[in-house]
Amino acid sequence: MTWALPAIAAILLAYAAISGRTAGTPITAPIVFTVGGLLLGASTVGLIDVHPAAETVKLLAEVTLTLVLFSDASRVDLSALRAEIALPARLLGIGLPLTIAAGFGAALLLLGDLAWPEALLLAVILAPTDAALGQAVVTLPILPSRIRQGLNVESGLNDGICVPLFLIVLAIAQAEAGAIGGGAAARLVAEQIGYGIVSGIGAGAIAAAILVVAGRHRTIDPLWAQTVPLTAALLAYTVAVPLGGSGFIAAFVGGLTFGAIRHRGEVNHSDGESSDGADLLDEAGDLFNAITFIVFGAVLLGPALGHLSWAVLGYAVVSLTAVRMVPVTLSLIGTRPRAPTVAFLGWFGPRGLATIVFVILIFEESGELPHEELLLTTAVITIGLSVLAHGLTAAPLADRYAKWFRHHPRGEGVMAPDPGR
């Protein structure tokens, strides 16, 4: 642990020095951070030698996901999104449940040692997508707006949707394994969801009211306004956890509440001088996200490679292909999409931050599941493969799809381009 922080800082500084040159190339930030962590981790030179269940690792993962969940949820502007809601609604409402079902079936087929609750837990853990692993896909302006926004909104919302599902299925798996009783599991889930929702609404409403009211009366300094959403995210989490609630649910609900009240306040009283603090929240989230991928490479991926098997690798490949692509295809039935669009949307469902945090939370409950090592190894290998495969293909495939889209007839259902484009 002595050299862990200097090693992490060195990786961050090294990437900062070349970040301008790697933008738009197949060498993405998550690839650099994961490989950097892997090279300096416990399985190699040992500079970053921390146990996955260590309190520092757990705290890092929780803070990172809290900031990302709050940030993503706070950006949801239903009035602005209405024109482009069809695609993410299908991906979330149809594609996500089908992805979990497909992942569950594949786990039972390929990982026969897993009990059915463990197979379902693995499917839920690997269901959320992470746009950061293929950032070119959601940021390149040459891509159709509806494709970019659809994947971005899907990634931003499916983390929050999967958190309560993860808590429920984990409780079922623990009860099935005899780690906790069925009544205790139900009570635990109810408390985590209930207190999480209440804490999130309270924290989000207070923070938004401060920005709206203080901004209206010009009593808040713009520099301090930048700290409000960041503080609100931490407030939602730290209030929920002592009460027995889920801090992640609190962060997600808090972000939704904060965004809804703030957007309404801006509509009712817009003077062009409001500051919502999104920049500081995003920058903090990006920094913690980078550190999380370094730690992932060092303390999770390195040891997992030592337990790699053909069954685990096979499931990882299937999870990133058929388990994602078939549900996406089915979710788009009736919208008249063309094959390249379906393939593009299906391929870019990378697994990342939320899955890493779920894995670390299971490490914290070490020994409560009979086939825990197999479950965790499979999840970690799938993330590692996704970091590499989606990172390397994001820029070239985004450019190729954009060129194809420009040279073919437009107007395909929910993927129709913006008017005038």
Automatic annotation (TrEMBL):
It is a multi-pass membrane protein. One of its GO terms (cellular component) is plasma membrane. Signal peptide: none annotated. Keywords: Antiport, Ion transport, Membrane, Transmembrane, Transmembrane helix, Transport. Residues 10-398 form the Cation/H+ exchanger transmembrane domain. It is found in: Cell membrane. One of its GO terms (biological process) is proton transmembrane transport. Coiled coil: none annotated. The chain crosses the membrane at residues 26-47, 91-112, 119-143, 163-186, 193-214, 234-261, 287-306, 342-363, 375-398. Pfam families: Na_H_Exchanger. The keyword ATP-binding does not apply. The keyword Transmembrane applies. One of its GO terms (molecular function) is antiporter activity. This is Sodium:proton antiporter. It comes from Rhodococcus oxybenzonivorans.
